[in-house]
Amino acid sequence: MAAGGGRGDQGIVVDENEGEESIFRRFRREVMRAGVLQEIKRRRRYESKKDERKRKAREAGRRNRRRRMMEEPRFPEDDADSEAARRARDDEKDNWEIDGIL
Questions:
Q1: CA dist 7 to 13, 15, 82, Å?
Q2: Every domain of the chain and the residues it spans
Q3: Which of 18, 63, 23, 44 is nearest to 10 (CA)?
Q4: Would you place residue 2 in the very low, low, confident or very high pLDDT band (cuts 50, 70, 90)?
Q5: Residue 4, exposed/middle/buried by CB under 10 A (0-12, 13-18, 19+)?
Q6: What is the C-alpha R_g of the chain?
Q7: Tens digit of pLDDT for each residue in 41-77?
Q8: Number of other CB atoms surrounding residue 16 within 10 Å
Q9: Contact at 8 Å (CB) between 36 and 7?
Q10: Are 42 and 59 in contact (CB under 8 A)?
Q11: What spans are recorded as compositionally biased (Basic and acidic residues) (predicted)?
Q12: What pTM does this model have?
């Protein structure tokens, strides 16, 4: 049985000479990755619709945060922007000039 797919069908391919410890370790890792234990713990008690919406919003935020972190550059100031271009942008943002004074 191959790992992957939907929830509930976790499995691993076992080699002939593979030890029990490594089999168990790989299986446990696949179960954790699939979130089976979290789902079991969550279903132990009744979850109201309000709590379910909160949980799903929290999970979506976590997924989106991870996705945004992968897309955005970690240090935007280190882009291929030259120092001259950066200074020109900063000068454009300055609005210190007041009519008649400067």
A1: 17, 23, 49
A2: 1-75
A3: 23
A4: very low
A5: exposed
A6: 26
A7: 999 999 999 999 999 999 999 889 888 877 766 665 5
A8: 4
A9: yes
A10: no
A11: 69-96
A12: 0.46
Residue 9, both tokens: 């069908």
User: Rounded CA gap, 57 and 52, in Å?
Assistant: 9
Q: Which tokens in the block code for residue 4?
A: 């992957």
What gap in Å lies between CA 77 and CA 45, rounded to an integer?
48
User: With contact defined as beta carbons under 8 Å apart, do 13 and 1 qualify?
Assistant: yes
Q: What is the pLDDT of residue 56?
A: 94
- Whether 5 shows a pLDDT value over 60: the answer reads no
Asked whether the predicted pLDDT for residue 101 surpasses 70, the reply is no
Instruction: Say if CB 13 and CB 4 are below 8 A apart.
Output: no
Whether residue 15 has pLDDT greater than 70: yes
Q: Let me know: does 42 contact 10? Beta carbons within 8 Å.
A: no
pLDDT at site 78 = 55
How many angstroms separate the CA atoms of 53 and 44, rounded?
Answer: 18
